[in-house]
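ARCHIVE RECORD
Type: protein–small molecule complex
Small molecule: coenzyme A
Source of inputs: curated submission
Record status: active
Notes field left blank by submitter.
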Amino acid sequence: MDPHSQGLPSNLRIERVATSSLSSHIITAVQALHDECFKGEAPKDKQESAREFLDRVLACHDEGSCVWFLLWLSNTLVGMCTVTPYTRSLYGWNLAVSIAHRKRGYGRLLMHHAQEYAYQRGLGELSASVEVAKTRLVAYYTSLGAKLQTTGQGGSNAPPPPSARITKAFSCEQVKADLEMSSAIVWKRANANPKCKVRTLTIFSSCAVMIYVARILHRKC
Ligand SMILES: CC(C)(COP(=O)(O)OP(=O)(O)OC[C@H]1O[C@@H](n2cnc3c(N)ncnc32)[C@H](O)[C@@H]1OP(=O)(O)O)[C@@H](O)C(=O)NCCC(=O)NCCS
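STRUCTURE (tokenized, with ligand):
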């Protein structure tokens, strides 16, 4: 994929990789990001090999059809998700953004790239599973147009299921609009950060100058 065609800041790129094409170097980065974002899921008693890690995170999915979206900031893996076709939708999981790089629009960007891929494959829907108790996460997905489906899981007296299926249907126009919107948010938030740093630096240097002047005046007195 040509990074320059993605409409993203020059240090940011999304790579789409089949599981069979993941190099050991990339699997190490994916494993580290997964451990960081899904704390407590990795076995505590032993170091997992790359093979064991893939078996765990790909679970029951057919490895040959699993594709990874990897988001690189320069040479650092900062985000990812895995997708596989499932009936008429593209099912996604392992959506993760490193803690230090959250709230920059990367999660949304990954989902919208997966959505474009689904569209290119003739699939009209993205789907995923979500823990119902994670209300913030559910609200995030629904704010992006997903619908929660809790029906069809047990009878009317059954306790609410711990996880639910979420789906998002889309049109060609929606795919384009969503990608433009998420790229614009990434640009906006990327530009906001340096400004913030400059403002902090200005305040610190002003304080330093004031302290310096105050000391000189104090000495003269
Ligand atoms: C969910 C996740 C991928 C979002 O990544 P992101 O790059 O920060 O996402 P965006 O910048 O597009 O949007 C940020 C939004 O994430 C939402 N969010 C969802 N779950 C969140 C959580 N546990 N903590 C903080 N924000 C969360 C917030 O609503 C936030 O919106 P806000 O900026 O208006 O407050 C990231 O929080 C993550 O890796 N979480 C841990 C792994 C996980 O739970 N993955 C989902 C598995 S189903």
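CURATOR ANNOTATION: The CA atoms of residues 132 and 138 lie 7 Å apart.
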